[in-house]
Amino acid sequence: MNKIVSIVGRSNVGKSTLFNRLIGYRKSIVNYKSCVTRDRNYGFCNWNGIEFCLIDTGGYTNKSENIFEKKICEQFFFALEESDIILFLVDPSNDILGIDYDISKILLKLKKIIYLVINKIDISKNRDNTSNFLKLGISNTYCISSINGTGTGELLDSIVSIFRKNYLNKNKKKFPRIAIVGRPNVGKSTLINTLLNKNQNIVTNISGTTRDSIDVLYQKFGIECILVDTAGIRKKKKIKENIEFYSVMRAIKSIQNSDVCLLIIDIKSGFESQDLNIFKIIENNNKGIVILINKWDLIKKNENNLSINYEKEIKKKITPFNDVPIFFTSSFTKKNIIKSIKTAVKISFNLKLKIKTSLLNKIILPILYKNTPPSINGKYIKIKYCSQIPTYNPQFIFFTNYPNFIKETYKRFIENKIREKFNFTGIPIKILFRFK
C-alpha cells in the first residue's frame, strides 16, 4: 500500500477546503468559482505519526463539451487509479444530484476503500439532510465540516488505522525540488507530461491552464527529484482574475520553496522583459537556475545556427550573473529534456557544497593577489583571507583593510572566480566584505 488518499466529488462541495484543512496550510486555491482546482494537487498529511499523500482533484462532470471539464475528468480517473483510499465528498446543502449518483457508481466498481464524507455540517439545516446520502450505497460514512474541522479527527483516525499495519517509521527522503517556471503557455506542463509519459497536468493551447503549483515525484534514468509545475507568471498589469493573482503568488512561493528552477523560454517569442523579471526573482531568492529554450522543434533546420547567437543574446541580457546552463529543448522530440533535469539535480547538490577555509584561500587568494582591487585615493586595498559562511546558499566573506572601497565590478570578478573554481555554475553567490 502506497498510502495515497484522493478527495473526489462534484464542483464546489469543499474538496480544496478539506485538502487545506488536512495538510495544514492553504496549498490549493479556494474560491467560489466552479472548477478552480484543475489539476491534481498533492500534499502530505501527518496524523498520529502516520504520514500519507493526499490528492485534491477538480470537480467531476460528465458529458461536458467544455475542454477544461473534459480534461478534469481525465485527471479524476488518474487520481482514482493512484489511490488506496478515496474520500467521496458531498454537500447536504442540496439533495443528492444526478452527478453524485454517477460518481458513486464509478467508485463502487473499484476495488478501493471508499469513504462517503458529508461536508458542511457546521450549517444546522444540513445536519438534518445527512441520512439522505446513504442512498448512494457507501456504508463507510463520516460527517464533517472542512471549514471548522468538526469530524475531521475521527476521519483521520480511521484512515491512519488502515495504513498503520503497513507503516514503516522512516523519515521521508528529501528529494531535490525542481520548479518549472516561466511565462504562461511556454510548455511547462508539457515538459512534465513528457517526462512522466502521462497527462499529469491539463495541457491546452490556452494560456493559464495551470493555476495551482503541482508537485510530482520523478524517479527515472537514475534521477530522483520533486518536479513542481507552476502557473505562468505574468506582469502585474496583465493579471485580471483574483484566482490568477493567487496562482502567480503561488508560483513565486514555489520558487522560494524550491532548490533549483528550470526557466522555460518560448523560442518563438524570445527572451522578453518578463523572462528577465522571473530570472531576477529566482536569483534574488538564491535558487539554482537552468534556462531551457523550449519548442526547438519549431525551428527550421537551416536556422539551427541561431542557437549560438541566441545563447549569446540571453547571456548578455542576464549579465552579470550569466554563468548559467542553457539548453535548447523540445518536449515533442525530447531533445535535451533528460540532460537538463540531470543538470538541475546536480546544481541542487552543488548548492550545499561547503568549501574548507584552507582550500578556499589556497585557490582564491593567489588569483586575487595577481588581480588586486584598484587603489582609492592612494589607499591600497589588501584582501587578507576568506571563508564560507554556513548558510543554505553559497555565501563567502572576505576580510580586508578597506571593505567599503571595493567596487561592484571587483566583487563580481571574485564571484565568477569562485563559481568557476568550485563548480557553482547556475548558482547565485553572495560576496561580503568585512574589516580586518
Automatic annotation (TrEMBL):
All copies of the EngA-type G domain together span 176-352
What is the protein's quaternary organization? Associates with the 50S ribosomal subunit.
Concerning its family, UniProt says: Belongs to the TRAFAC class TrmE-Era-EngA-EngB-Septin-like GTPase superfamily. EngA (Der) GTPase family.
Q: What Pfam families does its record include?
A: KH_dom-like, MMR_HSR1
Tell me which UniProt keywords the record has, alphabetically: GTP-binding, Nucleotide-binding, Repeat, Ribosome biogenesis
What is any one GO biological process for this UniProt entry?
ribosome biogenesis
Molecular function (GO) terms for this protein are: GTP binding; ribosome binding
* Residues the entry annotates as binding GTP 2: 182-189, 229-233, 294-297
What does this chain do?
A: GTPase that plays an essential role in the late steps of ribosome biogenesis.
The protein's name in its UniProt record:
GTPase Der
Give binding positions for GTP 1.
Answer: 9-16, 56-60, 119-122
- Name the encoding gene, please: engA
